[in-house]
Amino acid sequence: MWIFKRVADIQSFLQKRTSKNEKIGFVPTMGALHEGHTSLIKKSKSECDITVGSVFVNPTQFNDKKDLDKYPRTIENDVIALINAGCDLLFLPDVSGIYPEPSVKKYALGTLETVYEGSSRPGHFQGGCQVVDRLFEIVKPDAVFFGQKDYQQCMVISRLIDITPGFENIEMNIVPTTREENGLAMSSRNMRLSDGQRANAATIYQTLIYLKEHLAQGDLSNILKSAYEKLVEAGFKPDYVSIADAKTLQSVENWDGGTPLVALIAAFLEEVRLIDNMVLTD
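User: That's the sequence. What structure does it adopt?
Assistant: Structure tokens below.
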């Protein structure tokens, strides 16, 4: 696996591959890699001629400096994981390489940045778009791969591709969430959980299953209330428990039976904030 730290070096390398009409797949990450990340690398490998991964903990998408400071950095393990997954290139930039000048761009994300994660973490998606915009500009991928666990982020990146000149031909791939044996969605934040907390955290997945199994046309308030209570009883402090239109993320409180739905949960288990989702309709 080739490792590049400078923008000019990786661009020079990739330009030679592009001239051979090779399809470039890209998996941007913030490190602390797990099987969910490596599943994205493997998916890219199956569909592209060359796969690029990146590790960069992006400061602009953290609205809480303490959260940024606590974010796990495990670069040695990350390199091993990427090699084992078959990644061809790793881009390891520093902040000055990504942001040579302060970004002043603002992205027209509409209501996507005002609900759920956008509401709980103001500025998060603007910061995420800043780094992804810059990474796409550097790597110039033909296809990109993101995990469904960050459902709202996937919608935001799809929006970024749609509204940014030069990105219109990038193929967006959303890969199913990778889970632990107990159903817990794999996440870098899981590293902060004790063994007991990790077992208890599976309650989020069980709650999503409950919502899927009890979904029925009409008023959804009762099943949402029950889902919220299940989390509280298990020791969680829920941030949100919601059912939304899977295409717009607008909250749905009374279902017509036809609108595609997704359930979204964010909840604190002591100091660790976990998120998960599940598409409820086929």
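Residues 2 and 89 are 5 Å apart (CA to CA).
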